[in-house]
């Protein structure tokens, strides 16, 4: 089974970036309801520093985490940034003071959000930005994605990605410009539905298109949807390989497709260390077939 260690975003563009195939997602480095400061700020900073020291060079964030909390923690822990670090952010939502998640995706709102991300992350240009779809955006999807490509032409953004998109939206986006990555809900137990969409062929269908086009899939909630399910094949294989279920889940993702770029989130250095080691697990072809 092919399990390369790295992947490229923007492979066929003037600005390719080579990423280690295990990234880190920061959303959990916030307070309750992904709002406000984390319970343990020092540990949050340690997690970010350790991720980079261990060779992770893709960090996922958004200005609506906190809001502003994960971006500011990233800057505090890691700025000035290592040359090979790619910080991928997201736009398309804004938080209410009641911790609600609200649509924020009209072109002028996207621009404000990009400027916000640039300021919080202390950057002049954002390497990767995912336009994160919410059902309320449906009516102006083309206009919003068009605004992302406009900001790319202006130099604010290097690469445009999409998040929470259906096959139709992905194909539409790919027709408008180069889509560098897709960030969708995907995990061992979560391959058929899409966040914000009603059922459908979902993750597997999207993955096929991404594989055909060499575009990375950045799956989210992979552990969240797969841990604590009780006895299942992941737990069975974790025992066989003498690793934790979280590690087996991450290893399965990495073996599932060479375009997969997992970003397991954690608030602890101990779990981060465990997750990093998962990238070294070699699952046999026979066991991958059994896992399905
Ligand atoms: N585009 C979108 O709409 C979207 C939506 C959600 C998330 N995201 C992105 O995806 C990233 C990943 O999602 P996520 O962090 O919400 O969920 P996740 O990666 O599926 O799971 C995180 C959960 O797993 C636990 N965990 C991590 N490592 C573990 C280990 N080794 N053993 C046991 N438990 C472990 C964490 O608890 P501990 O803290 O105790 O380790 C946390 O509760 C986010 O950080 C965010 O960047 C994007």
UniProtKB/TrEMBL annotation:
A cellular component term, taken from the record's GO annotations: cytoplasm
Pfam families per the UniProt record, alphabetical: Aldo_ket_red
Annotated InterPro entries: AKR, Aldo-Keto_reductase, NAD(P)_OxRdtase_dom_sf, NADP_OxRdtase_dom
GO molecular function term, any single one: oxidoreductase activity
Residues annotated as domain NADP-dependent oxidoreductase: 21-291
Domain of life: Bacteria
Record keyword Oxidoreductase present: yes
UniProt keyword terms in alphabetical order: Oxidoreductase
PANTHER family associated with the record: AFLATOXIN B1 ALDEHYDE REDUCTASE, ALDO-KETO REDUCTASE YAKC [NADP(+)]
Protein name as catalogued: Aldo/keto reductase
Natural source organism: Mucilaginibacter ginkgonis
């Amino acid at each position: 089974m092919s399990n390369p260690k790295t992947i490229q975003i923007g492979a066929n563009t003037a600005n390719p970036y080579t990423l280690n195939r295990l990234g880190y997602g920061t959303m959990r480095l916030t307070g309750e309801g992904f709002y406000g400061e984390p319970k343990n700020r020092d540990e949050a900073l340690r997690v970010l520093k350790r991720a980079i020291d261990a060779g992770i060079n893709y960090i996922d964030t958004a200005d609506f985490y906190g809001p502003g909390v994960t971006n500011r923690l990233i800057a505090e822990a890691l700025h000035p940034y290592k040359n090979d670090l790619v910080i991928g952010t997201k736009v398309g939502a804004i938080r209410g003071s009641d911790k609600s998640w609200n649509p924020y995706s009209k072109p002028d709102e996207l621009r404000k959000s990009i400027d916000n991300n640039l300021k919080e992350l202390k950057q002049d240009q954002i390497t990767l930005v995912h336009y994160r779809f919410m059902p309320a955006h449906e009516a102006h999807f083309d206009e919003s994605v068009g605004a992302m490509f406009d900001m790319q032409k202006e130099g604010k953004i290097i690469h445009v990605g999409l998040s929470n998109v259906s096959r139709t939206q992905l194909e539409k986006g790919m027709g408008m410009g180069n889509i560098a990555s897709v960030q969708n809900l995907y995990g061992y137990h979560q391959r058929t539905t899409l966040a914000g969409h009603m059922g459908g062929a979902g993750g597997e269908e999207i993955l096929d298109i991404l594989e055909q086009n060499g575009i990375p899939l950045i799956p989210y909630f992979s552990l969240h949807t797969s841990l604590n399910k009780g006895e299942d094949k992941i737990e069975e294989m974790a025992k066989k390989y003498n690793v934790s279920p979280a590690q087996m889940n991450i290893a399965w993702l990495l073996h599932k497709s060479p375009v997969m770029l997992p970003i397991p989130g954690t608030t602890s250095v101990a779990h981060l260390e465990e997750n990093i080691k998962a990238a070294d697990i070699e699952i046999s072809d026979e066991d991958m077939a059994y896992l399905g």
